[in-house]
Design brief:
Chain lengths: 345, 305
């Protein structure tokens, strides 16, 4: 069913775009890969462990900022150039670890809080992160952001990708980022599959369903939640790095709460608690998003660009609402797997 | 620092009114309403729509011209519209959800969807421009220690009166008592012959009208933007949490304190040149409160972990 829907939505791209459907498709797939990766991280939090995390954007942000600041880049108003630094892959690893540690830092105090309080704390922490990054201009480039960092990744671009891109007139740099994000998705999914089928994964699901029972069995529920928080945060950090490389520049405005809500929409669409769900959710989501823009242009002829961009968010909001009401476990999720009924006591 | 204190009072009164509304709703329905900010923006946008001169063509996709009505009448109508909006939300969205026993977490996610939906609906119809109410500019005057315009001073006084009114309303009227009864225990209230559905509907309407009023205050003091509610939402959460979630009196004080903290922190020595980070101060206070005194200043202890 979901695979059918995904194929259908990709087919839709071909119908709706007569000129250059391939370019649009690969652009879409790059975004879908990056956001899908972030949604997999969120799914570890919410789907597997039941943690209501609304600060996902900050984990992506930590990963992206730490990685980019370690490799050669230019930052700030003057574009101050730092031409020494690590190569891409060590920096990436440090970035992921930094994101996971940020998850630990936030999780240590916050993880004991009840669901709705955790939601408020995580969204607030994400805003604090964004405001601080914006403010510390000497380190992070502030509102002027970070540029000129793409080369560190692009030097690894394989020959066949360049040839392929040239033949179909595609953007080879973006293709490389997209390819890497999809490779990462598969690696992460294989790891997660092993993890969730292990005793550790079963204990996590048990925490989601009934924390007291887990405690009674002598497991440390708080530590389990923290581990899950770090794992999901690390995956989000990886997605954040790819997001930055896809844009080619890093801006604080990328990590507004709306980014988190995008990822939430994708996760719910793909199926809360489903491992592979976010992949399909992400592809369907991005097809809907990109085709809405074109549709909106037809309906509201005298709206400006900002307003047209708003139309897609109207749809995102509607998607989140309707799915949460009618299909809370998503298109692919297992209904009996999900316990959303956390009553406040 | 003293002049920042005046600004803090103004921001505080906005947050305070909005926090009371949020807290009231949370107390009675247990819904953490992320769409609260959008009701706030609705109040401001509706007032702008009714009161803006007819010949201004900036609003509403150039299709619906503003109505050019008297400003005070516009405010009243806008608040009524907010009340109706809240009532409709309860009847068509949240009551069915409650009846089908959808969990609190799912409802929270629904309110986030609702918030994104309406915020961008405003963007589409009210444009992304920063707009102002059609009011004359005024010169600042000194009241006691604070410099502010006479209009802002009126807002401050009006806000204080609204607070006193809510306090009296909750304490002494029948419906106010019923609201507090439903807040304490839905079942017990039902048994004592209170129709909790009606009370919840009333709470939605009252909370939305208050939120709309807070939006109008904010628009008078600052300006109208499609995302004005969302920008202030986290500060409102901070105010509510600081005072104690679900307590009305606590939310009033908490909101006022947060407003003052935010503005006064601009004048602190270590914040020099970092004015953008002032909201981070309030959010950090909120997180600390949640960690060390989760029931807030005035709240009663309840299980929060």
């Amino acid at each position: 069913m979901t695979i059918f829907l995904t194929a259908g939505s990709i087919y839709l791209v071909f119908i709706l775009n007569e000129d250059g459907p391939l370019r649009i498709l690969f652009n879409l797939l790059t975004f879908a890969g990056i956001y899908g990766l972030a949604a997999i991280g969120l799914n570890v939090h919410f789907g597997l462990t039941g943690l209501l995390n609304f600060g996902h954007a900050s984990f992506m942000g930590v990963g992206a900022y730490v990685t980019l600041l370690l490799i050669p880049h230019a930052a700030g108003r003057e574009g101050e150039i730092t031409d020494t630094g690590l190569t891409f892959f060590p920096a990436l690893v440090i970035g992921i670890i930094a994101a996971a540690l940020f998850g630990l830092l936030l999780g240590l105090p916050a993880i004991r809080l009840r669901g709705d309080y955790l939601a408020i704390v995580t969204i607030a922490a994400a805003e604090i992160f964004r405001l601080l990054v914006r403010d510390l201009e000497s380190v992070t480039g502030g509102v002027y952001g970070i540029i000129n960092f793409s080369e560190s990744l692009q030097i690894y671009k394989p020959e066949f990708l360049i040839n392929f891109s040239e033949r179909f007139e595609l953007n080879s740099s973006q293709m490389w980022v997209g390819l890497l994000s999809w490779i990462s998705i598969f690696i992460v999914l294989i790891l997660l599959r092993r993890l969730t089928n292990s005793p550790w994964g079963r204990a996590l699901r048990a925490v989601r369903e009934d924390e007291d029972a887990v405690r009674a069995l002598g497991k440390n529920a708080i530590w389990l939640k923290l581990q899950s928080f770090m794992l999901g945060a690390g995956i989000a950090g990886l997605a954040g790095v790819f997001l930055a490389f896809n844009y080619g520049s890093l801006q604080t405005t990328t990590f507004v709460p709306l980014l988190t809500f995008y990822v939430w929409a994708i996760m719910i669409l793909g199926g809360v608690g489903s491992l592979t769900g976010p992949i399909f959710g992400s592809i369907i989501f991005w097809v809907i998003i990109s085709e809405t823009d074109r549709l909106a242009q037809l309906i509201f002829e005298n709206a400006n660009g900002q307003q047209l961009a708003g139309v897609r968010f109207i749809l995102v909001g509607l998607l989140i609402m309707l799915l949460m009401i009618f299909r809370p476990s998503g298109l692919l999720g297992k209904k009996e797997e999900l316990l959303l009924d956390v009553k406040s006591s | 620092m003293i002049e920042q204190f005046g600004n803090g009072l103004l921001l505080g009164i906005i947050i305070s009114v909005a926090s009371v509304a949020l807290s009231l709703l949370y107390g009675v329905t247990r819904i953490v309403n992320f769409a609260h900010g959008e009701i706030i923006a609705l109040g401001a946008i509706m007032t702008l729509f009714f009161s803006n001169p007819i010949d201004s063509k900036i609003l509403f996709l150039d299709r619906f011209a503003p109505l050019g009505m008297n400003f005070s009448i516009s405010i009243v109508i806008a608040i009524l519209i907010c009340g109706i909006f809240g009532g409709l939300l309860e009847i068509f969205l949240f009551r069915p959800l409650r009846k089908s026993e959808v969990g609190n977490i799912a409802v929270l996610v629904v309110t986030i969807g609702l918030s994104i939906f309406f915020r961008h609906l405003y963007l589409l119809f009210a444009t992304g421009r920063v707009q102002n109410f059609p009011l004359e500019l005024e010169r600042r005057q000194t009241y006691l220690f604070f410099d502010m315009t006479p209009r802002n001073f009126q807002v401050l006084i009006a806000g204080l009166f609204v607070m006193i009114f809510i306090g009296l309303f909750l304490s002494y009227t029948k419906i106010g008592k019923a609201m507090r009864a439903v807040r304490d225990s839905n079942e017990l209230a039902n048994v004592s012959g209170i129709n909790s559905d009606n009370i919840i509907l009333f709470t939605w309407i009252a909370s939305s009208m208050l939120a709309g009023l807070a939006g109008i205050f904010q628009a008078i003091i600052n300006d109208v933007r499609y995302n004005m509610g969302f920008l202030i939402l986290l500060l409102i959460f901070a105010g509510t949490v600081l005072g104690g979630i679900g307590t009305s009196f606590g939310a009033m004080v908490g909101g006022l304190l947060i407003g003052i903290f935010v503005q006064v922190s601009v004048a602190l020595p270590f914040m020099e040149g970092h004015t953008e980070a002032k909201n981070a101060v309030a959010l950090a206070i909120m997180i600390l409160i949640l960690l060390f005194r989760p029931q807030g200043i005035f709240g009663q202890k309840e299980r929060i972990s």
